[in-house]
Design a protein that fits this description.
The complex is a heterodimer of chains A (436) and B (323). In chain A, 30% of the residues lie in helices and 24% in strands. The longest helix of chain A is centred in the middle third of the chain and has 17 residues. Chain A has 14 helices and 18 strands. In chain A, α2 packs parallel to α3. With 436 residues, chain A is of the alpha/beta class. With 323 residues, chain B is α/β, with parallel strands linked by helices. Chain B is 40% helix and 14% strand. In chain B, the strands form two sheets. Chain B has a five-stranded parallel sheet with strand order 7-6-5-8-9. Classes of the chains: A alpha/beta (436), B alpha/beta (323). The interface between A and B is medium-sized, with 16 and 15 residues.
Chain lengths: 436, 323
């Protein structure tokens, strides 16, 4: 934590939590936001060595990415907490919520403690661990939700696995509700999706690839909504990808159920055709869907029916991706393209900048109960300085992640993070990067 | 009550199948009679000839050393001939149906049959088929009336009245016949009942029983007079309803720290046998200042004598099973 003052002046302050969108300045003291205001720190403060001139760029709360897979512990060659945190910082993400799908699985209080200690020792951004909902992610025996929550788990999830046994899930949800714990579910019917590489449709047929229908997702969404109704558990669909899921969730929300959902950035920007000639970096879980479903996801974010945008960052090494499509691993890195993809919604006129940022800051903070995602006085000074118009082309070799499996290679974007701050400390500065 | 009024009927029916069907008057009369048998049990001469010549059969389809021996001793102290039949030695294991077992036993002309069965409603089914009096010694997750009565006797002897008392029942309410019988009895007698358990161990409709529901034990124990712990059936619990015994003990095990939230002087009960370090800490269970657990065992024999006494009055009046 910083003991010194830092002054941000000449910024466009956007705080989705309060609705603020105005020119002004921000004062950081001891790692926390000490003051903020439109009249704060005009030209008089420029030239102060502790002053950062934002030059009219957007200063917003650092992003919170609710869905990040790393390889630590167990697959450090793919990604460590340290390398993921560097990618996060470069993407303007100041809190990564890490999934329990590691080796060993994060299903013991001592392993939650391990993640938090490793993160404190090595990571440059904040790390919030999600613990497993069932032991070994096997979908059979619920984990010690009370003890794991006390150890610091922010939510409970079997990551990218769906719990097939409804009795197990009902009891896990009921038990989680005892502690007011958040459950993050993955919606893909395990039998229908078994062995499938892509979404079912004309293109899958042309490619001759094993496919699963979008309904495999929607039916689990509908099933889980029933179980939430039965148990009263707080439930978040980690990521949805089709209109049928969106409609079911929107209807459940109208009935007042404690349900939220997220969408991965790649499901906002890509569709089934991007798989192209068996391009394995496009193999994600759930698969890229039809153009109509992609458009529905964009519409869902704009309407607020989809609460958060996530990267679903899932680093894979060449050994798991340089394979025939059906054999290749699922997953795409995304921490550094999350913000650019999300800003595309604003550039394309679907929604406002403040609304996009809300789905990346205030809303995930509220769902997880994190003290972050806001520019309020007293909040931790986790900040991102965004140039919403800066054009760039994605170069996989310049990614900070240990893995290079981006589905956005050579894609042109407009807008990205220029500087990131965690607790008032600069953890990423693009102007320094450029001089390297 | 005294032996002079021994023929006064106490129960309206010839069976004791549950607390739900009992009136406040019937419960009070049984507790009064229970007090008399506590006195008898503490005397040097503990026997009464009341049931001399009567046959009492203990039919236990589910093993229970505690309840079975309590009934056996109660019957013997009242002078009855008591026979124990347990499932392992009976023909039930050879495939005989419950009804066949009942008619076979009926032919032996017992006066009182005491039955424990793992299935809810099985004891009532037997009662419909038999000519003798039937006492439910626990059926599935339904009722365990003599346990609730002995708990009530224990409480009444300490607190004198149920009015204004708050009793917390903690643990596996979902599967517990003890909890169901106690909810009925305590509510009828004017006590306020709270249930404390994780959501997985609370029946979905628990809120419809006129009780208060808590999942946080510290919240639930605030201001209670009596803490009733339930036994956790470990073999069917772990992984299915709770994740582990260590987590259960951390959040729902009664230790001194949690007990401190209850009213000063609050008393602790447990139907036994206890899982130490799972639902109750030894420091609490063994503290004679707060734990009524041994007193409950003593009250158990007395209340079972009272129940046998009460049922035998019906036998005498109707002359049933007379040779």
């Amino acid at each position: 934590m910083s003991n010194r003052r830092t002054v941000f002046c000449n910024a466009r302050l956007i705080d989705p939590a309060s609705g603020l969108d105005a020119k002004g300045g921000l004062l950081v003291e001891n790692g926390k936001i000490a003051d903020i205001g439109p009249r704060l720190f005009g030209d008089a403060e420029r030239g102060d060595p502790e002053t950062i001139d934002c030059k009219g760029l957007v200063l917003a709360p650092g992003l919170i990415d609710m869905r990040v897979f790393t390889g630590e512990p167990g697959s450090e060659h793919r990604e460590t907490l340290e390398s993921a945190s560097r990618a996060a910082a470069a993407g303007g993400v100041t809190t990564i919520v890490v999934m329990p799908n590691t080796d060993p699985v994060i299903d013991e209080p001592s392993l939650v403690d391990f993640i938090l200690r490793r993160a404190a020792a090595t990571a440059s951004v904040r790390v919030a661990p999600i613990a497993a909902l069932t032991r070994h992610l096997a979908g059979e025996v619920m984990t010690e939700i009370g003890l794991l929550k006390e150890a610091g788990a922010v939510a409970f999830s079997d990551g990218d696995r769906t719990i097939a046994n409804t009795r197990v899930l009902r009891r896990a949800l009921a038990y989680a509700s005892t502690f007011g714990a958040l459950v993050v579910g993955h919606a893909e019917d395990p039998d229908l999706a078994d062995g499938a590489s892509v979404t079912e449709g004309e293109y899958a047929m042309r490619l001759g690839l094993p496919a699963a229908p979008a309904a495999a997702e929607a039916m689990i969404v509908e099933r889980d909504i029933r179980l939430v109704e039965l148990t009263g558990a707080r439930y978040h669909f980690g990521q949805i990808s089709c209109r049928a899921s969106l409609d079911a969730i929107a209807a459940a929300k109208r009935r007042g159920l404690p349900i939220t959902c997220g969408v991965a950035a790649h499901h906002l920007a890509l569709n089934e055709l991007d798989v192209g000639p068996y391009y394995t970096f496009m193999k994600v879980k759930p698969p890229l869907r039809s153009e109509a479903d992609r458009a529905a996801m964009v519409e869902g974010v704009a309407s607020g029916a989809i609460d958060v945008i996530v990267s679903s960052h899932d680093p894979q090494a060449a050994d798991t991706k340089r394979l025939p499509f059906a054999q290749a691993a699922f997953g795409a890195v995304g921490l550094e393209t999350l913000l650019p993809v999300a800003l595309g919604l604003m550039h394309n006129g679907h929604t406002s900048l403040a609304h996009v940022l809300k789905a990346l800051t205030a809303t995930p903070a509220a769902i997880l109960g994190l003290n972050a995602g806001t520019l309020a006085k007293g909040a931790p000074a986790d900040l991102v300085l965004i140039d919403p118009d800066a054009p760039f082309v994605v170069d996989p070799d310049k990614l900070h992640s240990r893995a290079r499996n981006t589905p956005f290679e050579s894609r042109k974007f407009q807008g990205r993070a220029m500087k990131s701050f965690v607790g008032g400390e600069c953890v990423f500065d693009r102007s320094v990067e450029a001089r390297k | 009550m005294s032996s002079a009024t021994a023929a006064t009927p106490i129960l309206k029916t010839s069976h004791l199948l549950g607390i739900e069907g009992l009136s406040v008057g019937e419960i009070t009369a049984l507790l009064d009679l229970g007090d008399e048998y506590v006195a008898l049990g503490r005397a040097k001469e503990k026997k009464s000839p009341l049931l001399k010549g009567r046959t009492v059969i203990n039919l236990f389809f589910e093993a229970s050393t505690r309840t079975q021996s309590s009934f056996e001793l109660a019957g013997k102290r009242l002078g009855a001939d008591v026979m124990n039949m347990s499932v392992r030695t009976s023909s039930v294991t050879k495939g005989e149906t419950l009804i066949d077992t009942a008619t076979t036993l009926n032919a032996m002309r017992p006066d009182i049959l005491i039955v424990r069965h793992q299935d809810s409603g099985a004891v009532e089914m037997l009662a419909r088929k038999l000519d003798c009096c039937v006492v439910n010694a626990g059926d599935g997750s339904h009722e365990h009336p003599t346990q609730a009565l002995l708990d009530a006797l224990t409480i009444r002897r300490r607190r004198h009245s149920f009015e204004g008392l708050t009793v917390a029942i903690c643990g596996d309410v979902l599967h517990s016949r003890v909890a169901r019988s106690n909810i009925h009895l305590l509510s009828k007698m004017g006590a306020r009942v709270r249930l404390i358990a994780p959501r997985t161990l609370l029946p979905a409709a628990a809120g419809r029983f006129g009780v208060e529901i808590f999942t946080d034990m510290r919240e639930g124990l605030k201001g209670v007079d009596i803490v009733m712990m339930l036994r956790l059936q470990l073999e069917r619990m772990t992984g299915a309803f709770i994740p582990s015994t260590r987590e259960y003990f951390r959040f729902w095990g009664l230790d001194r720290e949690k007990l401190a939230y209850a009213k000063p002087g609050a008393l602790v009960m447990h139907p036994g046998p206890m899982n130490r370090g799972v639902e109750i800490d030894s420091a609490v269970a063994d503290d004679i200042e707060v734990s009524l657990i041994h007193e409950q065992v003593e009250m158990g024999v007395a209340i079972r004598m009272a129940v046998l006494d009460a049922l035998s009055r019906g036998l005498s009046a109707e002359g049933r099973n007379a040779p």
